[in-house]
Write a structure and sequence with these properties.
It is a single chain. This protein is an alpha/beta fold and 370 residues long. The protein folds into 2 domains: 6-24 and 33-127 and 141-156, Spo0b-associated Gtp-binding Protein, Chain: A, CATH 2.70.210; 162-333, Rossmann fold (3-Layer(aba) Sandwich). Helices cover 22% and strands 21% of the residues. It contains 6 helices and 14 strands. The strands form 3 sheets. The protein has a 6-stranded mixed β-sheet, sandwiched between helices. A 5-stranded mixed β-sheet has the order 3-1-8-5-6. A 3-stranded mixed β-sheet has the order 4-2-7, with no helix packed on it. The protein is elongated.
C-alpha cells in the first residue's frame, strides 16, 4: 500500500429538518389546536482514531464527506427523524487542521479517540412551540439550521519514541533492520527509503520502544530539496533523535563533518523546536575502518563537530555496538517517563492541596441546597 501522510478533504454536516405548522383535525374536535412537530437534527461528521489504519490513502481519493439532512416535522406531533452521524476512521497520529485559517481542529493521539469535525444543523421548531394563552392558533414555524461546512487538511505524524536522522546512504535503514522488526528496502544508491518506516525494538520480552526512519536529508532540504523535508513532521512527536553519520564514505571524497553540520543547519531552518530535542550522535560503518585507525578517526570527527553530547560507535551491518545503543535508548526513555510521571503527580498533589485549603464557610463556595 502506498504511504500517504497528507490529504485535503471537505466535510459537510447535514441540515436540520424544517418545523411543521399544522393543526389537529379530528371528528368532534373542531379546535384541536397546533400539533406541528419539530424537524430532525442533521447528521454530524466525526473523526475516530483507529490504530488499524496506517495511512491517509482513503482520503486522497475520497475528498468530500457529507452527512444526511434531518427529516422535516409532521402533523399530529410527529417529529422528523434525525440523520445518522458519519464517522471517518483515521490513523492514530493524524493532525486535523482547518485549511482556511490554520486552526488545529483535533490531534488524534489515542486509539478510539473521537473528535467532532462538522456539526449537523439543529431541526426547526413546529408551531406547537408558539402556542400561548393569547395566540392559540399560531402559524409560526422555523426552518432547520444549516450544517457546518469545513475544508480540512489532514497531516499524519507517526507516533514513535525515537527518530532517525541522516544523509542518504548513512545506514539508517540498515540500522532499523538490525535492531527492530522493520524490513525497509536497502540498496547501495541514495534515496532508497521513499516513505517513513516504523519498527518495534524489543529490549526484552516486556520492554520495547518504537523507532521511525525517514528518507535521508540533503543540503537545502528545508527549501524543498530531496525527499526528507516532506517527512520531518514525523519526528516532531519523538522523544529522542539519533543522528546517524557515515563515518567512512566509500567515495573517499565526501566530508562526514561537513554533511553532519549541514544536516544540523537544515533542522534549524525547518523547526527550532525539532533542533532542541535530545539528539545523540551515532557513528556508523566503523567496520570498514581498520581497528588501529578507528580511535583517531572518531576523536577527530568529534573535535571538528565540537560535539558535547552522547556519541555511539556502531556498525549496523554486523550489529557491532547496536545492543549497547538500544539499552541506552531504553534507559533514557524510561528516565524521561519517570520525570513526566513525577511532574504529573506533583501537579495533582498541588491541586488537591488547593482544594483542601478552601474554607467551607467562605460564601463564595457556599453549597446551595434545594
Amino acid at each position: 500500500m502506498k504511504f500517504i501522510d497528507e490529504a485535503r478533504i471537505e466535510v459537510i454536516g447535514g441540515d436540520g429538518g424544517n418545523g411543521c405548522a399544522s393543526f389537529r383535525r379530528e371528528k368532534f374536535r373542531p379546535f384541536g389546536g397546533p400539533d406541528g412537530g419539530d424537524g430532525g437534527r442533521g447528521g454530524s461528521i466525526w473523526a475516530i482514531a483507529d490504530r488499524n489504519v496506517n495511512t491517509l490513502v482513503d482520503f486522497r481519493f475520497s475528498k468530500v464527506h457529507t452527512a444526511k439532512n434531518g427529516e422535516p416535522g409532521r402533523g399530529s406531533d410527529c417529529y422528523g427523524k434525525g440523520a445518522e452521524d458519519v464517522y471517518l476512521r483515521m490513523p492514530v497520529g493524524t493532525l486535523i487542521i482547518d485549511d482556511n485559517n490554520g486552526e488545529i481542529i483535533a490531534d488524534l493521539t489515542e486509539h478510539e479517540q473521537v473528535e467532532l469535525l462538522a456539526k449537523g444543523g439543529e431541526g426547526g421548531w413546529g408551531n406547537i412551540h408558539f402556542k400561548t394563552s393569547t395566540n392559540r392558533a399560531p402559524r409560526q414555524k422555523t426552518e432547520g439550521k444549516e450544517g457546518e461546512r469545513r475544508e480540512l487538511r489532514l497531516e499524519l505524524k507517526v507516533l514513535a519514541d525515537v527518530g532517525l536522522l541522516g544523509m542518504p546512504n548513512a545506514g539508517k535503514s540498515t540500522f532499523i533492520t538490525a535492531v527492530s522488526n522493520a524490513r525497509p528496502k536497502i540498496a547501495d544508491y541514495p534515496f532508497t527509503t521513499l516513505h517513513p518506516n516504523l519498527g518495534v525494538v524489543r529490549v526484552s520480552h516486556a520492554k520495547s520502544f518504537v523507532i521511525a526512519d525517514i528518507p535521508g536529508l540533503i543540503e537545502g532540504a528545508a527549501e524543498g530539496a530531496g525527499l526528507g523535508h516532506q517527512f520531518l513532521r514525523h519526528l516532531s512527536r519523538t522523544g529522542l533523535l539519533l543522528h546517524i553519520v557515515d563515518i567512512a564514505p566509500m567515495d573517499g571524497k565526501t566530508d562526514p563533518v561537513k554533511e553532519a553540520k549541514a544536516l544540523v543547519k537544515e533542522l534549524e531552518k525547518y523547526d527550532e523546536e525539532l533542533l532542541n530535542k535530545p539528539r545523540w550522535l551515532v557513528l556508523n560503518k566503523l567496520d570498514v575502518v581498520p581497528e588501529d585507525e578507528r580511535k583517531k578517526l572518531v576523536k577527530d570527527f568529534i573535535k571538528k563537530m565540537a560535539w558535547k553530547g552522547p556519541v555511539f560507535e556502531i556498525s549496523a551491518l554486523n550489529r557491532a555496538g547496536c545492543e549497547d545503543l538500544v539499552h541506552a535508548i531504553y534507559q533514557h526513555l524510561e528516565e524521561k517517563r519517570h520525570v513526566e510521571h513525577r511532574s504529573e503527580e506533583k501537579q495533582m498533589t498541588e491541586e488537591a492541596r488547593a482544594i483542601s485549603s478552601i474554607d467551607p464557610d467562605d460564601p463564595r463556595f457556599k453549597i446551595i441546597e434545594d
